[in-house]
Amino acid sequence: MPAKLDTVGSIDATYSVVSCTSTAELHERIYAPHTRPLDQLTHQAVVEWLDYRRAQWPNTANPHLLINRLTAVKTTPVGKVWLTKAFCGLEATLERLHADRQLEESLVRGPDPLHLAAVFGIHQNTAIRYANAARQLLTTMAEEQALASSREPKDRNTL
User: Which of 5, 11, 106, 141 has the lowest tally of Cβ within 10 angstroms?
Assistant: First the structure.
């Protein structure tokens, strides 16, 4: 599905279809737009890409955010191989970036599986796994922080 940049620094995207219980739910996930806020770095990268894209292919009718020389003359998205080649030799993969983004969301907004399922359009079991992982990280971080603060030297004047 196409994605487009709006004027306030977010990107309109659609839910991914992972698992649907009805035709109505499938239709809603495919066609219901969902706006996701972008951080400043991502926003700037998208703006620069769109400037490059307009200069490179000024007459393209392709509605997708990412296009290449082959898809610029069509209305189809770039293929997975094209996207994967960009990450060739890097530790980051599309799957790892996607998982990292989901985990980050659950750390920032709290480990709420319903929120994760709604934002990312993922299956409830997957959302529960990410929420549990975030909950474990938050618990571990809190325990480490408590341990570190208990080891700090006490000021004798405050006793």
Answer: 141
Domain extent listing, the chain: 1-78, 87-152
Residue-wise burial string across 127-140, b where 16 or more C-beta atoms lie within 10 A, e elsewhere = bbebbebbeeeeee
Contacts by residues 129-138 (CB-CB < 8 Å, ≥ 24 positions apart):
130/99, 130/102, 130/103, 130/106, 131/106, 133/103, 133/106, 134/103, 134/106, 134/107, 134/110, 135/111, 137/103, 137/107, 138/107, 138/111
Does this model's pTM top 0.70? My answer is: no
Instruction: Give CA torsion, residues 132, 91, 69, 10, to 10 deg.
Output: 40
* 36 CB-near residues (< 8 Å, 6+ apart): 10, 11, 13, 119
Write out pLDDT tens, residues 3-15: 444 433 444 443 3
Contact 101, 42 (CB under 8 A): no
